[in-house]
């Protein structure tokens, strides 16, 4: 959710009954501080957390800034949770770590995490190298760990929420659906690209650098062609260049930027407010639940 989930989206999500996460992956510490303070100036401060990629070179500063500003809900990703979880737990924080395999779920549990986010490779953005789908990953993680499991990856519909809970997850984390809301800080051209996507709109590329799911555009297709031709890690890195996420998501360069979005983008048909989106998700969930209960009663 880089360049997408700032304080406005996090606060809107919290007001609608969800946990709002500020995506720190595209922020420097002082910008993160500004977003946290704006979020904490609202009535939903207690429902605001921060997502921090642990591979960031300034991860210590991002965590320290968050702690100084009163954040006590941390979702960590892209790195070893052992490095920071103890520090966060000492400050009374709740820590959930994003994982893409059973092996890494076990490591997160051993590191003292309070929950894991089991994210299948349908997800937009960076993915696990094993390409395990959400439907297969979630129940295996549920069986493997004794801490709550949050399902993620390709979820944009209330029917999918019900399915994930049936698999044993205790919650879901949703990205792309909220990246295309009114309150998202992403560019309008990016939001429209999500709405325009169909079931086959995305591709997983840059597997030797770090697997990332993007909407097919000029850059994504060139990266896919290079991948198919056997490009080396350095060749993929050179092709990636710098700031493509910002170009695509924040600046709206729909051909040369990275348009990170999940396979769930094919389910998203319009740009709505967060409140409308939450209402739709709940209504879809309830209809799906009634349908299952009706089938079970027959």
How many beta-strand segments?
10
Strand order of the largest sheet: 1-2-3-4-5-7-8
Provide the CATH topology of the largest domain.
TIM Barrel
Instruction: Return the CATH class of the largest domain.
Output: Alpha Beta
The H/E string reads: HEHEHEHEHEEHEHEHHEEHHHH
Q: What is the SS-derived class?
A: alpha/beta
Question: CATH superfamily membership of the largest domain, which one?
Answer: Aldolase class I
How many DSSP H or I helices? Answer: 13
Task: Provide the low-confidence segments as ranges.
Answer: none
Terminal CA distance: 43 Å
| Overall CATH architecture of the largest domain | Alpha-Beta Barrel
Counted up, domains total 2
- How confident is the prediction overall: mean pLDDT? 95
Features:
alpha/beta; 10 strands; seven-stranded parallel sheet; 14% strand; 298 residues; 2 domains; 13 helices; 43% helix; TIM Barrel; three-stranded antiparallel sheet
What does this structure look like?
With 298 residues, the chain is of the alpha/beta class. The protein has 2 domains: 7-186 and 265-297, Aldolase class I (TIM Barrel), CATH 3.20.20; 202-260, no CATH class. The protein has helices spanning 7-15, 29-40, 59-68, 85-90, 102-110, 134-144, 158-166, 176-179, 188-196, 218-228, 233-240, 244-250, 274-297, and strands at residues 20-23, 48-53, 73-77, 94-99, 115-119, 125-126, 149-152, 171-173, 202-205, 212-215. The strands form 2 sheets. The chain has a 7-stranded parallel β-sheet. It has a 3-stranded antiparallel β-sheet with strand order 6-10-9, covered by helices on one side. α1 (7-15) packs parallel to α2, α2 runs parallel beside α3 (59-68) and α10 (218-228) runs antiparallel to α11 (233-240). The radius of gyration is 18 Å and the shape is globular. The protein starts with 6 loop residues before the first helix and ends with a helix.
